[in-house]
Amino acid sequence: MAKQxxxxxxxxxxxxxxxxxxxxxxxxxxxxxxxxxxxxxLILVGDSKGRIGYGFxxxxxLTDAIRKGGEAARKNMRKYPTMGSTIPHEITVKQDxxxxxxxxxxxxxxVVAGSLVRAVLEMAGIKDVMAKIIxxxxxxxxxxxxxxxxxQLQTRDVIKQRRGIA
Length: 166
Known about the structure:
The chain is of the alpha+beta class and 166 residues long. 37% of the residues lie in helices and 35% in strands.
């Protein structure tokens, strides 16, 4: 009986997750018989409650690349701190050629950001934030910079505790 409830919980948790294809790249290799195509897919998975992850996968078939990317995204899911419907503080992060700047916005402002950063923040359930992508248009680097920025966010309680105030 316990096994059924555990699998039911996993199914319920999996059903709450949303999956979004952010970027698909088609690569052509010229061989003796013509062109051989392979695909890479960048997939985002989130529950709109603070948990989010991404996966990048390559395969000879597009559907296989998307499936593999989704599995990788589910494995890499993490929870990130929020302060109500926004982020706790401003942050700028550089990842390879891409820089991402994020700042908290007042309630009701919405997500003001470029397409990839917007997708990540909306999938994470962050509703009010202002973000800017600086210096790159490579989707993988932008995504990595966004996740790096989310990882470096800290709540006021954590900062106070580290400073010895609380």
